[in-house]
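We close this part of the discussion by returning to an individual protein. Part of our work consisted of pairing the sequence of a single chain with a tokenised description of its backbone. What the numbers capture is local backbone geometry rather than side-chain detail. The amino acid sequence and the backbone structure tokens for this protein are reproduced below.
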Amino acid sequence: MSTTRTKRALSRPPVGLHRTVPIGIVLALVLILLAVVAVRDLVIDQRWATGQTWLPDLLAGLDGTTPTTGVLVAASVAGVVGLLLVLVGLTPVPRRHTRAPDADQLWSSPAAVAAVARAAADRAPGVLSARTARAGRRRIVLEIATRGDEGAALAASREAATTAGNALGARRIDVRTAEEE
């Protein structure tokens, strides 16, 4: 039974941090601040310390609030922000890695796939150097500097980079010659 659970866990793709994590951290800090103020007011109300309480004055200031344009705008903004937070919470977690086609449990980041493809393109005949211009889940762009016959070196490096990248799950690898500076 644990083997099935392990296989299931290993077959799931690695995912990035959900968008709600920073929002949750901010809301948690606000709640902690509110708890600290409430405990402070409790300590003062029980006469364990001296001072002026904050929450009764705040609540008394809100008491008697009438429906004005400012209150309507603030409530509308709070409602829209709440709906946006719900929508963000319901969106799926973004995938950051790609699965290798031949292995169920091999996941690679786009940067790692680009590094393997770049190294393969760099070893192709006629290529002086290769660098990664862009690395994403859908597309990797490599730029190469060639010596002599540019067409043959471009074709050889494209074939080498595509073979190496496709083994790790790359969808599309574009190889182009680097522009001289």
Remarks:
- The chain has two domains: 17-90, 98-177.
- The beta strands are 98-99, 107-108, 127-135, 140-146, 173-177.
- Residues 98-177 form a domain with the GMP Synthetase; Chain A, domain 3 fold (CATH 3.30.300).
- The first strand starts at residue 98 and ends at 99.
